[in-house]
Design a protein that fits this description.
The protein is mainly beta. It contains 2 helices and 12 strands, in the order ββαβββαβββββββ. The protein has 2 domains: 62 residues, no CATH class; 141 residues, no CATH class. The longest helix has 13 residues. The radius of gyration is 22 Å and the shape is globular.
Length: 218
C-alpha cells in the first residue's frame, strides 16, 4: 500500500462562458504536493481506472482513476521562505566588466561556477517602427509561472525542478500582478527571443541551509 502524502478535494466548475475550472483544496503546509501535481499534469496519462459496482445497463456510482507520478524525474520545489532572506548587495556595473559580472551572477543564482560559456549573437527590437521592431504577446493572458532545473540546493548533486508562480503572496494567494510573455520578431538569420515584461516580481538574496543565493520571488 503506497504511503499517503496529503489529501486534496477536487471540484469541477463550469461558468457561463463554457469555461471549465478545476478547484483543488487542501492543507496549506502541503502546497508542494499541489505544485508537483500541477507540473505533472502536463502530458499526464491515465494509468488505471477502477469502476465500483459495475453492472450491465446500469451506471456505476463511483469511478477512481489513478496516475503514475515519477518523483525521481520531476519534483517541484519551493523557494526559501521570505523570513530567511538576506539583504541584497547593489551591483555597480560601472566598476565591473560585463563578462565578469555575468559569471558572478551565474554563481549567485546557481551556487556553482559555469561549466561552459556560449556566445551567441541575438537581435532585440528597437523604436524604429519597422516590421521587426515589435514584440508579439504569446497567449491572451498573463504568464502564471515558469520552470527551470538546477542543483543549487541538492546536496546529492542531482538536478531539481523549480516552479515559480507569479503573482502569489507568501500564503499562495494570487494578490499581485503577473507578467506577460512576449516573443521578438527578428529579421532573417536571428533566433526569436522570449521576454517576460511587467508584473510584480523581483530577484532577492535568500538563505537556505546556510547558503545565500539569488532567487526569483513574487
Amino acid at each position: 500500500m503506497p504511503k499517503k502524502r496529503s489529501t486534496w478535494q477536487l471540484t469541477i466548475h463550469e461558468d457561463e462562458d463554457d469555461v471549465v475550472e478545476v478547484h483543488l483544496t487542501g492543507p496549506s503546509n502541503k502546497v508542494n504536493d499541489l505544485n508537483m501535481f500541477e507540473v505533472l499534469c502536463r502530458g499526464l496519462r491515465a494509468w488505471d481506472s477502477d469502476v465500483k459496482n459495475f453492472q450491465d445497463g446500469k451506471a456505476p456510482k463511483t469511478i477512481t482513476r489513478k496516475w503514475m507520478m515519477p518523483l525521481t524525474k520531476i519534483k517541484a520545489k519551493l523557494n526559501p521562505i521570505k523570513g530567511k532572506k538576506s539583504k541584497s548587495k547593489k551591483i555597480t556595473t560601472q566598476e565591473e566588466k560585463d563578462f565578469d559580472h555575468a559569471i558572478r551572477l551565474y554563481k549567485e543564482f546557481n551556487g556553482v561556477d559555469p561549466k561552459e560559456m556560449i556566445t551567441e549573437e541575438v537581435w532585440l527590437p528597437d523604436d524604429s517602427g519597422g516590421p521587426h521592431s515589435m514584440l508579439v504577446a504569446i497567449g491572451e493572458g498573463t504568464c502564471p509561472f515558469i520552470g527551470y532545473t538546477s542543483g543549487k540546493t541538492n546536496k546529492k548533486g542531482e538536478m531539481d525542478t523549480y516552479i515559480h508562480h507569479f503573482g502569489e503572496d507568501d500564503d499562495g494567494n494570487i494578490t499581485k500582478e503577473r507578467p506577460r510573455l512576449y516573443v521578438t520578431v527578428p529579421p532573417p538569420g536571428y533566433k526569436p527571443v522570449l521576454m517576460l515584461i511587467g508584473g510584480d516580481w523581483d530577484i532577492e538574496d535568500r538563505t537556505a541551509d546556510g547558503t545565500t543565493l539569488k532567487w526569483l520571488v513574487h
